[in-house]
Design a protein that fits this description.
globular; 0% helix; Trp_RNA-bd_attenuator-like_dom; binds tryptophan; Immunoglobulin-like; 51% strand; mainly beta; four-stranded antiparallel sheet
Amino acid sequence: MEDNVTGSSEYVVIKAKSNGCQVFGLTRGQDTRLHHSEKLDKGEVLIVQFTDHTSAIKIRGKAVVMTKHGVVDTEE
Ligand code: TRP
């Protein structure tokens, strides 16, 4: 996967449980900043990967996050 050299082929599934749930992508490297955000409404699902550019994801709002490590709920 040429666009994702340091990333894995794993996907993270985020399902919004309320309207206006936000998902932020944080940059990889020394400088940690938000480089992208997505707004999800209740029931919407976002499927994402970590990449060369994204090393962390922050979620604001009620959502269920599914990864190979298990299922986590954000709390509100
Ligand atoms: N830019 C940081 C990095 O690539 C992003 C990051 C990853 C981070 N994990 C973190 C920032 C944990 C704070 C806490 O490592």
